[in-house]
Design brief:
1 helix; rod-shaped; 86 residues; mainly alpha
Length: 86
């Protein structure tokens, strides 16, 4: 009879250990999903920031090019006017 009880206790312990392992795996999976979600959110934030910086740089470059272009046109017009007067 002792052998049967020992076997039954062994089975109960194995089932309890399996249940604990299952719960731990669920926790690990939940933690992994949470970390993955956070990583994706951070990636999206970084990509948005990079796009904003790119757009700002393009806008600044266009503005600078316009200012420089206007400056060159004014200088060319001034040179033409000066030569007309000579």
């Amino acid at each position: 009879m002792n052998a049967v009880n020992d076997r039954e206790d062994g089975i109960k312990d194995a089932l309890a250990a399996a249940e604990n392992a299952k719960k731990e795996m669920q926790n690990v999976t939940a933690d992994s999903e949470k970390l993955l979600k956070e990583a994706r959110a951070e990636r999206e934030s970084l990509l948005k920031e990079a796009r904003d910086i790119k757009d700002r740089l393009i806008a600044d470059s266009k503005e600078l090019a316009k200012v420089e272009g206007d400056k060159m046109i004014k200088q060319a017009q001034a040179t033409i006017e000066k030569r007309k007067l000579q």
